[in-house]
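TODO from last week: model glutaryl-CoA dehydrogenase (ETF).
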Amino acid sequence: MALHPYDLYDVRALLSEEERAVQDAVARFTDERVLPIIGDCFDAGRFPSELVPEMAALGLLGATLPEAYGCAGLNSVSYGLICQELERGDSGLRSFASVQSSLCMYPIHAYGDEAQRRRWLPQMAAGEVIGCFGLTEAHGGSDPANMKTHARRDGDDWVINGAKMWITNGNLAHVAIVWAQTDDGIQGFLVERGFRGFSAQEIKHKMSLRASVTSALYFDDVRVPDANRLPNVKGLKGPLGCLNQARYGITWGPIGAAIACLDEALRYSKERVLFERPVAATQSAQIKLADWARRITTAQLLSLQLGRLKDAGTMQPTQVSLAKWNNCRMAIDIAREARDLLGGAGITTEHCPIRHALNLESVITYEGTETVHQLVVGRELTGINAF
């Protein structure tokens, strides 16, 4: 029996019935609703916000959080498959879901109180309230401890001053999870749209994640009630815990992008005839296609095992770094090489490889650059911190 070209090791057979059902549902959504429009969205620099209610109806927002808050209560592997199928459409759509789920809903659930959970999570799961995550600062980059945004206590309120940069969903957001230095360490705050002194400015002229909203956030004496402070965490472990959740999903997402590139390159190479034979009949093309399949298979097995470890409660940050490093590098290399195989046709967004290659320039950078994750693994091996 012929093997599936995008699943040579039959990884799907290792999934539960529920996990396969989740993957199939999101795959249909991507095929029917995302792929017909996403190229035009990328060209126009437009996030397809009309898809958010449909994503919410499928249970894709905060998918792993409890049903008591209007969420789907899925396991981590199912969430990974959601990320894979969304990014098969476009990294921008997966980024939206990652930020909403892992960087906004997760900290409210993990670090917030019950009143905050009841107020925010059901509306966020329904897509009625959009969140963003304010950690990165222009001068800080990969060093979040070098944070300048500050919050000082003033009676029953906090007053926040500072700025955040490269914030996905920033101009869409109704609430921002903002991390700020305080006299008692780094703390998180729920800063609502409309709070005086809080503004967002969309970043234009992007050549990557064009179907995504990226913003700078500004805080000028923004007064936030103490009821909007996340009470159950202090220090960098708060935002880093959120990033670990998001990085897990990102290990899956690029697999989808790589599969999309392999799929298009396979079809194109069979149809494109040069020197009286299809491109797919040449040894050079077959070696490339086989190598991409090898790398995709390795990434699938890596993320699946990572998901099983996460569901067992034994996943370690170094394991996430290894998978994020491997899978992002795998996907960006495949996207670039697929663009090359398509020749001149590969430079247009009528074909997906150039779009995925450009998007993956961001994906390989955010939530920890490739170098950061290499150094995390190096520290684990040597016991020496080289940061």
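Done. The chain is about 50% helix and 15% strand.
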